[in-house]
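Submission checklist for the structure archive. All mandatory fields must be present; incomplete records are returned to the submitter.

[x] Identifier: Circularly permuted type 2 ATP-grasp protein
[x] Organism: Parvibaculum sedimenti
[x] Residue count: 472
[x] Sequence attached
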Amino acid sequence: MPGAVFDEMGLSDHEVRNAYATLRDWLSETPPEVLSLRREEAETFFRRIGITFAVYGEGGDPERIIPFDIIPRILEAAEWRQISAGLVQRVKALNAFIADIYGPQEIMRAGIMPSDHVLLNETYRHVMQGVQVPAGVYTHISGIDMVRVGPEEFYVLEDNVRTPSGVSYMLENREITMRLFPDLLSRYNVAPVDHYCDDLLKTLSSVAPRNCENEPTVALLTPGIYNSAYYEHSFLADQMGIELVEGPDLYVKDDIVYMRTTQGPKRVDVIYRRVDDEYLDPLAFRPDTVLGVAGLMNAYRAGNVNLANAVGAGIADDKSTYTYVPQMIEFYLGETPILKNVPTYRCGDRDDLLYVLERIDQLVVKEVHGSGGYGMLVGPKATRAEREAFAARVKAAPEKYIAQPTLALSTCPTFVDQGIAPRHVDLRPFVLAGEEIRVVPGGLTRVALREGSLVVNSSQGGGTKDTWVLKD
């Protein structure tokens, strides 16, 4: 894996890649004060429509605007074809894996994955054993985090198939770009993303239960206004034209889910749930939850309602499960992986643990179930005391950690206070799987706004960019 940083815009100090040539010309003819004004207008727009996220555990107002960088990231059509093919392949394999572990468990019988890794994993839901889900789809909405390290080198960093978030920012980023920079957008032939919500509704409707009567009724289940992604929940429900509901809005009778409405009870066929497994049903999981619906799992197991994503899908985005995905692709699909995994060390393995502890100053160490940039150590950026403290945590529970080399994430031109400068980026494309698989052209580009930083998470000071996929 190369160590030099790949600049997605420039071939050298004087040359740029074809996709960025028009952007370079536009930037050269646009005064910095105009760019500053447009950035202020973008922030005003986001504040006015209420695009915020919550940072828990901090004092003051936890609601923040995610910084939006006004300079788009550009991917050529050929690059996107490679990415898209790899995403479809990967999601197919992840879905086959989930179906297998809650069914015949062939991957464990074949000795490819240890039984303990699956059956003793805290994300494995024994209540899903033998459940038949509509169309055999478990991963209806996937967000696959990727990084780029070279002209044709894309790596998958992690898979998100529980309740992946961020698609609303992808859509709003395009909206604000169209408002602020119609002249720049008109110079490119950019694939649209505004059909995502239509595609999402088609996907959810296509996996309705077999006994669904007439047009399926789809609802989005949210934990409520205090959830960090509540804006996205309300945005998606509004765009799809479906009801946004909380646990008390639903009830189960005779293993059928109903929604309370002003016209009386209405049957619900598909629930796009943004509530974690353990809070879905107090009768099946945590008895103290007030976010879920009593009896929901009975209705689900009876085949009278479908949940997207499936209960128990979280085992497929466990960071230690990630290490087996290339083998899953070969085992279930009989294919060679199109997208590479980042080399990863499982600290639960004794040899890997020793390797990680000896080189913790060179590696990124992550909690298996961590997210949002928390529960991780960037070894080269950490102090000696921080590395020692984190090493002690790893030694105490090695099975809860994995480690990866520090990647030389690619950079894109970014408008910062000092002007236009390269900043590291990643990419979260979104994949929809129902009767067919759809990949949204682009996805959410996250950017590390601090110079030299490799952490792109919004909770850690990162921002977002509009992502342009060019048509042929």
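[x] Structure attached
Curator remark: Confidence is low (pLDDT under 50) at residues 56-61. DSSP finds 13 helices and 23 strands in the chain.
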